[in-house]
Design goal:
This protein has 615 residues and is an alpha/beta fold. The protein has three domains: 3-49, Ribosomal Protein L24e, Chain: T; 58-114 and 122-340, 3-Layer(aba) Sandwich (Rossmann fold); 345-599, Glycogen Phosphorylase B (Rossmann fold). Helices cover 40% and strands 19% of the residues. A nine-stranded mixed sheet has the order 9-10-11-6-5-12-13-16-17. Strands 20-19-18-21-22-23 form a six-stranded parallel sheet, with helices on both faces. It has a two-stranded antiparallel ribbon with strand order 1-2. The longest helix is centred in the C-terminal third of the chain and has 26 residues, at 554-579.
Length: 615
C-alpha cells in the first residue's frame, strides 16, 4: 500500500513513513523535513496535493453510485450494517482501481444509533453525536426538491475516498439542515432508517431525485451510468425520465440504458413499498400517476419494481441470490455479481505485515492472496495469535471478562434479526456443555445491533445474553455493545472460527465470513449466500445442514441444522483445533488462498465495469 507525501510528492510506505493527523485524515510523509514543512502551511500543501488532474475533474466521472448508506469509517455514522459497509468497500476499490465513479448518499447527522444494554440485556438506543465538518468538505451548491408540496433545500458535503495511488473517488452526502427549511425538513437527514413511512419516502426522494439534481449542480455532466445499490434510490429513474422525455413521448429506453440495479433482499417483505395516497401527498405528480403505476406497480409503489423496469443491467449479490430473485421477479433478466470486501480495510495489522512480507503487492491485487497457501504455518499462526490477543484485550477492557487465549473462540457478529438465528448454537445447552467437556473448551464472542423497531431481533439479543449468564464460566459467552466497523475488524480477525447460521434462502450474500477469511479465520456456516460458492468442506471451513431445505417447517429445519452443527463441532472441528494444529493452520491458509483471493471488492468492481458499466 503506497501513499503520497504532499510536500515532495514521493510515495511513502505507511508502515515506514511519518504521519500527521489533519482534519480527521492521516497524512503520510517521507521525512521529518516534509512533515514540518506541511505543519507550517497545511492548506497550501493540501491544495496542491489534491489539485484535480484531468481524470479527477467532475466532468470525467462516468458512473454515479447511489446508496442510502455508505460506511467509510466508524467515526462517520452514515451506515447501519452490511449494505453500507459494502458500499464503502466498493468505493474504496473503485479508488484503488481508478474507476471514474462518484458516490451519492445522505448525511445522517444523528446516524443510526449508539447501542447499550440494560441489566436484562435489553437494547437501548441513543443518537450518535458527531461533527460533519471534522471529516467532510462543505460544498456551496444547493438544490431544491418538492416534498409534500413544499420546496425543500438540500446542500452537500464531500468526503474523498483516496485510493492507493492517490486517485480520489468523491462521496457526495446530501443534507437538509439548511436555513430556510422548516424544522421538520431540516430533520429529514437526521436518522438513517428512522421515522415512519412518510419520513422514509421523503429520504428516498432526497436520495434519488435530489441526488441527480445535485450531481448536475456540481458539474458531473459526464455520468453515463447510474448504479442503484438497492431500491432506496429508485426515484432517480423518474428524474432521468423527465429529462429524457420529448413532447408527448416517454423515452424509457434511453433511461434504461443509463441504469444499473443491484438488489440485496431475497424476501418480498424486505422491499420498500408505499401506498399511492402517501406517494401523492409526499412525492406529488413528478410524472403522471398512470406512468408511475405502470413502472412501479398498480396497487402500491414498489421501489424495486421501479428499478427493475428501468434498468438495463440487474443483478443479485450471489449465485443463489440470482436464482431466488428470478423466482421472486419472473420475467426479468437478473444476473449475479457476488459481493466482496475491501481487502486492505478488513485485513488486520498482523496479517497485513505477513502478506507484505510474503505476497508484496497483494493490497491492490488481492487475487495474489492465493499464494498464501505457501506461507509458513508458524508465521500464519503467529499472526493469528497476535490478532486474537488484541480481541481478548479489548474484551477484558470493555467487560472485565478474561477469555482464554488457548480456547477455541467462535465469533458471531452481524445484524441481530430473527432469520440469522444467533441462538441456534444454544438450542441444546446440555449437549453443548457435553461437547465442550469431551472435545475441548469453547468460548463465544457476539456483537450486533437490532433495528430499533425489530422486537424479535431485540429479543434474540436478550436470549443470547441470558444464555451467557446460565452457562457462566463453563462456556464463556460475551455479547459486545455498539457493533461498528472498528469492533467488526477486531472480532473477524481475532476469532478462531466464524459462525453463520442464516435460514436458507434468506441470506442474499453475507460478507462477514469473507472478512474473516482475509485473516485466516475459517467459516462454519449454513449453505446460503456466498458460502455456497466459498465452501470447500474441510478445506476452507465447514457447512451446517443440508444444501437444500427439504421441508418448509422452520422448527424441523432448526432441529436438523442444530444437530449437524453439534455433530461437526464435537467430532470434527474441536478435535482438529486441539489435536491437529498443523491441519487447522492448513485450513486457515486455504481460507485465505481460495476465499480471500476471490471474495473481494476489487474482483467485484471489475465485474461491474465489464458486465454493467461498459455495456
Amino acid at each position: 500500500m503506497l501513499m503520497k507525501d504532499p510536500v515532495c510528492g514521493m510515495t511513502v510506505l505507511p508502515e515506514r513513513g511519518l504521519t500527521a493527523l489533519y482534519e480527521g485524515q492521516t497524512i503520510y510523509f517521507c521525512s521529518e523535513y516534509c512533515r514540518n514543512k506541511f505543519l507550517t502551511q497545511p492548506e497550501r500543501y493540501l491544495e496542491t496535493f489534491f489539485a484535480p488532474t484531468q481524470e479527477d475533474v467532475n466532468e470525467s466521472r462516468r458512473v454515479a453510485y447511489f446508496s442510502m448508506e455508505v460506511a467509510v469509517g466508524s467515526s462517520m455514522p452514515t451506515y447501519a450494517g452490511g449494505l453500507g459497509v459494502l458500499a464503502g468497500d466498493t468505493l474504496k476499490s473503485c479508488a484503488d482501481l481508478r474507476i471514474p465513479v462518484v458516490g451519492v448518499s445522505l448525511l445522517f447527522r444523528k446516524g443510526y444509533f449508539d447501542q447499550t444494554f440494560d441489566e436484562w440485556g435489553g437494547q437501548q438506543e441513543a443518537p450518535v453525536v458527531w461533527e460533519p465538518s471534522r471529516f467532510l468538505l462543505p460544498l456551496p451548491e444547493t438544490v431544491q426538491v418538492e416534498i409534500e408540496r413544499r420546496t425543500v433545500q438540500a446542500r452537500a458535503w464531500q468526503y474523498n475516498v483516496i485510493g492507493t495511488s492517490g486517485y480520489v473517488v468523491p462521496l457526495i452526502l446530501l443534507d437538509t439542515n439548511v436555513e430556510g427549511n422548516t424544522d421538520g425538513d431540516r430533520a429529514l437527514t437526521d436518522y438513517l432508517y428512522g421515522g415512519d413511512q412518510r419520513y422514509r419516502l421523503a429520504q428516498e426522494i432526497l436520495l434519488g431525485i435530489g441526488g441527480v439534481r445535485m450531481l448536475r449542480a456540481l458539474g458531473y455532466s459526464g455520468v453515463e451510468k447510474f448504479h442503484m445499490n438497492e431500491g432506496h434510490a429508485s426515484l432517480l429513474v423518474m428524474e432521468l425520465l423527465k429529462d429524457a422525455t420529448q413532447p408527448a413521448e416517454w423515452d424509457f429506453e434511453r433511461v434504461r440504458n443509463q441504469c444499473v440495479f443491484t438488489t440485496h433482499t431475497p424476501v418480498p417483505a424486505g422491499h420498500d413499498q408505499y401506498g399511492y395516497d402517501l406517494v401523492e401527498r409526499v412525492l406529488g405528480q413528478t410524472v403522471p400517476f398512470d406512468v408511475l403505476q405502470m413502472l412501479g406497480g398498480q396497487d402500491r409503489l414498489s421501489m424495486t419494481l421501479l428499478a427493475l423496469n428501468l434498468s438495463r443491467y440487474i443483478n443479485g449479490v450471489a449465485k443463489r441470490h440470482e436464482e431466488v430473485s428470478r423466482k421472486m421477479f419472473p420475467g426479468y433478466s437478473i444476473n449475479h455479481i457476488t459481493n466482496g470486501v475491501h481487502s486492505w480495510t478488513w485485513t488486520c495489522d498482523s496479517f497485513k505485515a505477513l502478506y507484505d512480507r510474503y505476497i508484496p503487492g497483494w493490497a491492490n491485487d488481492p487475487a495474489m492472496l492465493r499464494q498464501a497457501i505457501s506461507i509458513p504455518k508458524d508465521d500464519v499462526w503467529a499472526a493469528h495469535r497476535e490478532a486474537k490477543s488484541r480481541l481478548l484485550a479489548y474484551i477484558k477492557e470493555r467487560t472485565d471478562i478474561s477469555l482464554s487465549a488457548d480456547a477455541l473462540t467462535i465469533g458471531f457478529a452481524r445484524r441481530a434479526t430473527q432469520y440469522k438465528r444467533a441462538d441456534l448454537v444454544f438450542s441444546d445447552e446440555r449437549r453443548l456443555l457435553e461437547i465442550a467437556r469431551q472435545a475441548g473448551p469453547l468460548q463465544f464472542v457476539f456483537a450486533g445491533k437490532a433495528h430499533p423497531r425489530d422486537g424479535e431481533g431485540k429479543e434474540l439479543i436478550r436470549r443470547v445474553i441470558a444464555v451467557s449468564r446460565r452457562l457462566g464460566d463453563r462456556i464463556p459467552v460475551v455479547y459486545l455493545e455498539n457493533y461498528d466497523i472498528d469492533l467488526a475488524r477486531l472480532v473477524v480477525a481475532g476469532s478462531d472460527l466464524w459462525l453463520n447460521t442464516p435460514q436458507r434462502p434468506l441470506e442474499a450474500s453475507g460478507t462477514s465470513g469473507m472478512k474473516a477469511a482475509h485473516n485466516g479465520v475459517p467459516s462454519f456456516s449454513t449453505f446460503d449466500g456466498w458460502w455456497i460458492e466459498g465452501c470447500v468442506e474441510g478445506l476452507t471451513g465447514w457447512s451446517i445442514g443440508a444444501r437444500e431445505v427439504g421441508t418448509p417447517d422452520a422448527g424441523s429445519v432448526n432441529r436438523q441444522d442444530a444437530d449437524d452443527l453439534y455433530r461437526k463441532l464435537g467430532s470434527v472441528i474441536l478435535p482438529l483445533f486441539y489435536q491437529s494444529r498443523e491441519q487447522w493452520i492448513d485450513v486457515m491458509r486455504h481460507a485465505i488462498a481460495l476465499n480471500a483471493s476471490y471474495f473481494n471488492t476489487h474482483r467485484m468492481a471489475q465485474q461491474y465495469v465489464a458486465n454493467a458499466y461498459l455495456k
